[in-house]
Amino acid sequence: MRQPRMDPEVRRQQILEAATRLIGLHGYNGLTIQDLAQRCGLTNGGLLYYFGSKEQLLVAILEERDRSEAAIIHADLEIERAASGKANYTRSTVLQTFRAIVTRSVTQPELLRFHSVLRSEALNREHPAYAFFLRREVMVLGEFTKVLAGHVDVPARAARQILALIGGLEQQWLRADMSFDLMVEFDEAITLILPWAKTVLQTDKAFVTN
């Protein structure tokens, strides 16, 4: 049976959430419009009214997730600008930024699984999310580089290493059924890229109570 008529924005959000769960379980190629429509109490045509196509739905999910995650992570940070020199931010802010990303992963494993599945599938140039992830990686590396400026010799290189560290640990964590402490492993590994991080984590009041 169809569900009662909803506010268009509420219905749109319902579709996005249902599609996110299905893709996390079966991947993008395992998602069918028919299955998704049935879960949302819609006909195929009714569902496509909101997004036009399966490809447009996918891009909408990814863009919505990035917007919401960026807003939440930014709100949780205590951003401190560096007083002088080449650095844009204090070392405390640098670590807060990267740890906030990992923290969000820990609190939302279902969304993390969804994102990890798509990120892997989108290595195929024919995948509808290929261009999205390519643009996103360039953007994230650029932001990481700005955050790291003045704290390492080659910020762009460290940015790439940290992005790989986060993504790699997240995949291992999911594959291990979340059986290890992701944040503990990240804190240990980040000191190999940012040697000064160990001292900050041990002495900075923003971390010693965590």
Question: Could you describe the 3D structure shown?
Answer:
This protein has 210 residues and is mostly helical. It has two domains: 1-52, Arc Repressor Mutant, subunit A, CATH 1.10.10; 63-208. Helix content is 71%, strand content 0%. The chain is built from eleven helices and no strands. It has helices at 8-26, 33-39, 44-51, 54-76, 91-107, 109-121, 130-148, 155-175, 182-193, 197-203, 205-208. Helix 1 (8-26) crosses helix 4 (54-76) and helix 5 packs antiparallel against helix 9. It is elongated. The protein starts with 7 loop residues before the first helix and ends with a helix. The mean pLDDT is 89.
